[in-house]
Specification:
Length: 80
């Protein structure tokens, strides 16, 4: 099961990334669990300085942007 984590303080971009990542995971048909991380200390512990950011299985994949759906699906699918 993939654990998809959206890191951000709840801004509009963070919410948009959460919805986009969940939609991408559903389209892939993979088992997944979504988590929203809005605790600033947890976010910085993961090495993220700009939000929104996306982590899969605890590994940060990108920050400070919202990728296109195709890129999101690829990131989620190939993450270990």
């Amino acid at each position: 099961m993939k654990k998809i984590q959206v890191l951000g303080m709840g801004c509009a971009k963070c919410n948009k990334l959460y919805a986009a990542a969940e939609a991408a995971a559903k389209e892939l048909g993979l088992p997944y669990e979504m988590e929203k991380i809005d605790d600033i200390s947890r976010i910085t512990e993961m090495g993220v300085m700009m939000t929104p950011a996306l982590a899969v299985n605890g590994k940060v994949k990108f920050s400070a942007r919202i990728p296109a759906n195709d890129e999101l699906k690829k990131i989620i699918q190939v993450a270990d």
